[in-house]
Amino acid sequence: MAETSITTDRQIAALKPKPRLYEIGITGSRGLCLRVFPTGTKNFEFRYTADNGARRRHPLGAYPDIGLAIARAKAAALRVSVIEGDDPSARRASEREQARTGETLAELADAYWRAAAKGLHGGRRRPKSEVTIKKEKTYWKNHIEPQLGSRRFAEIKRADIRVFMRELALESGLRPDSVATIGSTLQSILGFAVHEERLEANPAIGLAQPLALISRERMFNDDALAVLWRATGNATAVRGRDGPDKNARLEPEIALALRLLVLTLTRRSETAGARWDEFDLKAGIWTIPSARTKARHLHVVPLSKAALEVLNTAKALHPKSHFVFPSTRATGTHIDVHGLTRAVSRICTRHKLAAGSPHDIRRSGATTLVGRYGVSRLVVGFLLGHTAREGAAVTSVYDRHSYIPEKLAALELWAKHLDELTVAPQAVEEASPNPQPAPA
Q1: Separation of alpha carbons 219 and 176, rounded Å
Q2: Peptide bond into 146 cis (omega under 30)
Q3: What does CATH list as the number for 2-96?
Q4: pLDDT in tens, 149-176
């Protein structure tokens, strides 16, 4: 509330700051006031009531950058615009929002990815990984941007999304899960506009998955697992002057990484990016930091004897590297995550196996442990890096090393199973006649 009223610039110049902010009204200019801050800053503001009854403040500038006469003129012009129905304060806030997120869907997408890298895009408030953002940008560039990128996102309707998704499903030739991923990316971008209060509702909700998804059911039976295990074991771990042994089918770094992935049932990104400072070889523990796990929580993996042998071989191959499996093509980084997928694909093709991926190895191991060896689904879930739905969330923060003995016992069983497959006269056709479904 204004304490008094002034009429000249000399009076404004003579005002002294106080311990608390105070206001002074300007005589003869309704709504115009001067705010004096404890720092000595003096700002002109125009106060008014909008059509909806809300009381607003609109900044005009700081004294002496603008004088009293200019402030009066600005206040008079704003007073006329308010009478005509304008809301200058709300308009200014809208312009600031537009500058932050842009107007087109392409500008919104750029703002979304900047926010997603920090976890400010809404949702669970967790930063999206570089891999996820890179994948979304690829889908955006190849499929969404050519059709919708230049459109004003505020004008995109549900009918537009429906047509886009239908044409994508009919004409792109993509699998249902890829179509759904593109739809999910579009939905996330528009969801960011809702989070930023630029849209009232997300027009893509319910339209991102036009086709029924096919469940990922591929599993390697014992014969296929034996082939994979032999293929990774046959690759040499010793380089000559001319590179790896010409008879080796896999690069030694890739082969060793695949063996560790199989033995630990970890994800391909967790294995490919493994660093030596994550391992305690004496204790037989691999602690994967939360920043490198899909669920964004610390994952402790006990190491079987077979896994320790793989790590010792990897250490001898590159004793000075910070990465367990360094890239031989790019100095200072690890092997390509996709290289593991390509390696499994090549093995399957070469030995005439049904197409498979590193993730299928996790599914196969989990099902074998549950169905054949009776390992509890809870232990297998922890082994795969999943979180328990039940229990106190606070307890989980401190109980980081729970089930280590149970997980180690399961992995030793799994390593023994793999070893027996390669020495048995004939591998069993299936892991179990009626395997129990296990966590993927």
Answers
A1: 20
A2: no
A3: 3.30.160.390
A4: 999 999 999 999 999 999 999 998 888 8
